[in-house]
């Protein structure tokens, strides 16, 4: 039985580079999210002397930001 398995939540988190659902999502300092693989590949093509920029908002970062996994923090609100 084949059924489309894309939830509304998932479809909101597509990677602007590969246009797939985010795989290993990481946030960069501007707040945009990409696949770890995609943003690494994107920045690997950047000249070492230029800044690393967000493909979406063009915010530039230097040095290359450390990518951290996008983890959802446990809800602490009352
Ligand atoms: Zn991607
Ligand atoms: Zn951005």
Automatic annotation (TrEMBL):
Keyword hit for Zinc-finger: yes
RING-type domain sequence ranges: 15-58
Keywords: Metal-binding, Zinc, Zinc-finger
Name this polypeptide is given: RING-type domain-containing protein
SMART domains: RING
InterPro entries tied to this protein: E3_ubiq-ligase_TRIM/RNF (IPR051051), Znf_RING (IPR001841), Znf_RING/FYVE/PHD (IPR013083), Znf_RING_CS (IPR017907)
Keyword Zinc-finger set for record: yes
Pfam families: zf-C3HC4_4
A GO molecular-function annotation: zinc ion binding
């Amino acid at each position: 039985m084949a059924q489309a398995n894309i939830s509304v939540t998932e479809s909101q988190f597509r990677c602007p580079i590969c246009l797939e659902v985010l795989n290993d999502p990481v946030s960069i300092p501007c707040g945009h999210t990409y696949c770890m693989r995609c943003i690494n590949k994107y920045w690997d093509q950047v000249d070492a002397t230029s800044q690393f920029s967000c493909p979406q908002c063009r915010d530039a970062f230097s040095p290359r930001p450390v990518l951290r996994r996008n983890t959802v923090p446990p809800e602490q609100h009352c």
